[in-house]
């Protein structure tokens, strides 16, 4: 029995189809959405969402953090930013990483909540670069 | 009466004005289509966001210490108004409608003894409020309209609002923008962002759809409060984004209508000027003939 996967970015719907399994990067570890799963709401970190059909990965999408809403029959991923892994621009990502690293160096080290946000962003961009270079 | 030469020049200049306005109308129509498509494409995200918020709000109902974005600061003293307009004019009453509604709201709030702060979005709003209420402006966002609106504009604006709120500088935040109804009509409206107005139906339908789908309880990872705290700023950005897209579509719709009117008016002016021109021409000929004939008779 397949599961309906939707990957939605603020601008548009990227994917809406049926697959066998979806593995996504949860904030506290990777999680697979499969049919008949107990409903769950999940915070995502930056990383790659893999769509499985017949035990093989058919599509990989990079998401830069977001939320996932899983039920027994469907899985909706609300991504802050999403694109197919093949479309990642490593140059852009590297530039973004440099800008973030600079912001980190300048940031007030006592302001924990700000540092947390920056750290999440840096990790997300690093994951994007990893995903982009692994697909080459 | 104007001379023939003057009339010819005026007709010529109105003709070129008509060419410009009709070209602007075409461009606005094409941009309107694009803007409507992107507004359409942004809808699923907002819908899914509302559903998740509904589910979460149902799960966290009655818990203490709700985030500020949801509950506000508990006070009602400092209001932040965000008028959203386009960067360019020539679109009829589109921008001045927002200005007027914002001014009314400012007046009303100040009469109630509240402090008002302004965060104009779009060059037209910035210029207008720089003249009217320069002392109230705390920040501005300009220079994006006319193109496809990137989400980053909305997320930056959302972050700014959130920062002001967390710093305790504002208590209530309201958007003033043109709701897009169709290409002809845009109505200015206020939308309160903070504290969030959870319309009961969305909360209820959200919870109800969950119950219908699976009676089992939702799992949350991490816990509900953390998720809610992450989801709320995102929801703020999405609402701002939606209103930016509506403004973009409305601007082009309003410009299309305004330019259509202008083109038609130009045509009408050209008609009446041509009539005057022809009449003057005929009068001149008649006068000349009379002069010649009376000259001949005198001989």
From TrEMBL, chain A:
<keyword id="KW-0066">ATP synthesis</keyword>
<comment type="function">
    <text>Produces ATP from ADP in the presence of a proton gradient across the membrane.</text>
</comment>
<keyword id="KW-0375">Hydrogen ion transport</keyword>
<dbReference type="Pfam" id="PF02823">
    <property type="entry name" value="ATP-synt_DE_N"/>
</dbReference>
<comment type="subunit">
    <text>F-type ATPases have 2 components, CF(1) - the catalytic core - and CF(0) - the membrane proton channel. CF(1) has five subunits: alpha(3), beta(3), gamma(1), delta(1), epsilon(1). CF(0) has three main subunits: a, b and c.</text>
</comment>
<comment type="similarity">
    <text>Belongs to the ATPase epsilon chain family.</text>
</comment>
<dbReference type="GO" id="GO:0012505">
    <property type="term" value="C:endomembrane system"/>
</dbReference>
<protein>
    <recommendedName>
        <fullName>ATP synthase epsilon chain</fullName>
    </recommendedName>
</protein>
<dbReference type="GO" id="GO:0005886">
    <property type="term" value="C:plasma membrane"/>
</dbReference>
<dbReference type="InterPro" id="IPR036771">
    <property type="entry name" value="ATPsynth_dsu/esu_N"/>
</dbReference>
<dbReference type="GO" id="GO:0046933">
    <property type="term" value="F:proton-transporting ATP synthase activity, rotational mechanism"/>
</dbReference>
<keyword id="KW-0472">Membrane</keyword>
<dbReference type="GO" id="GO:0005524">
    <property type="term" value="F:ATP binding"/>
</dbReference>
<dbReference type="GO" id="GO:0045259">
    <property type="term" value="C:proton-transporting ATP synthase complex"/>
</dbReference>
<keyword id="KW-0813">Transport</keyword>
<keyword id="KW-1003">Cell membrane</keyword>
<feature type="domain" description="ATP synthase F1 complex delta/epsilon subunit N-terminal">
    <location>
        <begin position="4"/>
        <end position="82"/>
    </location>
</feature>
<dbReference type="InterPro" id="IPR020546">
    <property type="entry name" value="ATP_synth_F1_dsu/esu_N"/>
</dbReference>
<keyword id="KW-0406">Ion transport</keyword>
<keyword id="KW-0139">CF(1)</keyword>
<dbReference type="InterPro" id="IPR001469">
    <property type="entry name" value="ATP_synth_F1_dsu/esu"/>
</dbReference>
UniProtKB/TrEMBL annotation, chain B:
<keyword id="KW-0472">Membrane</keyword>
<keyword id="KW-1003">Cell membrane</keyword>
<dbReference type="Pfam" id="PF00231">
    <property type="entry name" value="ATP-synt"/>
</dbReference>
<dbReference type="GO" id="GO:0005524">
    <property type="term" value="F:ATP binding"/>
</dbReference>
<dbReference type="InterPro" id="IPR035968">
    <property type="entry name" value="ATP_synth_F1_ATPase_gsu"/>
</dbReference>
<dbReference type="GO" id="GO:0046933">
    <property type="term" value="F:proton-transporting ATP synthase activity, rotational mechanism"/>
</dbReference>
<keyword id="KW-0406">Ion transport</keyword>
<dbReference type="InterPro" id="IPR023632">
    <property type="entry name" value="ATP_synth_F1_gsu_CS"/>
</dbReference>
<keyword id="KW-0139">CF(1)</keyword>
<protein>
    <recommendedName>
        <fullName>ATP synthase gamma chain</fullName>
    </recommendedName>
</protein>
<keyword id="KW-0813">Transport</keyword>
<comment type="similarity">
    <text>Belongs to the ATPase gamma chain family.</text>
</comment>
<comment type="function">
    <text>Produces ATP from ADP in the presence of a proton gradient across the membrane. The gamma chain is believed to be important in regulating ATPase activity and the flow of protons through the CF(0) complex.</text>
</comment>
<dbReference type="GO" id="GO:0005886">
    <property type="term" value="C:plasma membrane"/>
</dbReference>
<dbReference type="GO" id="GO:0042777">
    <property type="term" value="P:proton motive force-driven plasma membrane ATP synthesis"/>
</dbReference>
<dbReference type="InterPro" id="IPR000131">
    <property type="entry name" value="ATP_synth_F1_gsu"/>
</dbReference>
<dbReference type="GO" id="GO:0045259">
    <property type="term" value="C:proton-transporting ATP synthase complex"/>
</dbReference>
<keyword id="KW-0066">ATP synthesis</keyword>
<keyword id="KW-0375">Hydrogen ion transport</keyword>
<comment type="subunit">
    <text>F-type ATPases have 2 components, CF(1) - the catalytic core - and CF(0) - the membrane proton channel. CF(1) has five subunits: alpha(3), beta(3), gamma(1), delta(1), epsilon(1). CF(0) has three main subunits: a, b and c.</text>
</comment>
